[in-house]
Amino acid sequence: MSVQDWPRSTSAVEFGCSLDIRALGQPGDRDRLKGLCPRLSARSRYMRFHGALNELSETFLDQLMDVDHDLREAFVALQGEEIVGVARYVVAAESPSLAEVTVLVADAWQRQGIARHLLSRVRESAVQRGITGFRASVLPSNEPAQRLVNAVAPDHHVFRTSDGLGFRWSHSDPASRRHFARTTAAESSTPAASP
Ligand SMILES: CC(C)(COP(=O)(O)OP(=O)(O)OC[C@H]1O[C@@H](n2cnc3c(N)ncnc32)[C@H](O)[C@@H]1OP(=O)(O)O)[C@@H](O)C(=O)NCCC(=O)NCCS
What we know:
Number of domains: 1
Bound molecules: coenzyme A
Radius of gyration: 16 Å
CATH class: Alpha Beta
Shape: globular
């Protein structure tokens, strides 16, 4: 599927300004992604990439830009020309119905519902491709991400991985469906459980 097939969406009310969420892959996105890195704290970079990262190398940018809108998909949230958040999924090698999800929001934009909205777009896209389950790898000290999973997928399962925790959930479970119905309706969400 071509990136042009994905509609742009704008939410002006919730974020207090105009914010577009669309698939990654438009001209200029490589530079926009590069521009996101300096707007991330060292902690956010560490939590997302599980290691110290001062800048995005060209090789790493190649990997981040490598979406085919089928097995590898990414959505970006933009304020004007700046990318302020990215969520992506990659279909798991062992199962076409399972995808690995990651999400990242620039520090100045955190706690405004952007990750929720990006994950909602990820879910919509995954449904269209027959993906029924998600997996996310989170460092044990990453409380925000654990709380985010609790908020969007309360029925998740947790397991140990080599470098932290794995979360697995189905987007069709009743609690997740209720959450995303609320997100779509732009209503306020229930408080998160403890991680
Ligand atoms: C985790 C992360 C993506 C959350 O993004 P965000 O846009 O701030 O998240 P949202 O505003 O959509 O928050 C959704 C819910 O998640 C939980 N949450 C998110 N950040 C939280 C925090 N710092 N403290 C407590 N709860 C948090 C809350 O339940 C929140 O709902 P609420 O604000 O109504 O209470 C962001 O902190 C980030 O980019 N961290 C660095 C990268 C990372 O850790 N990625 C995850 C591993 S791939």
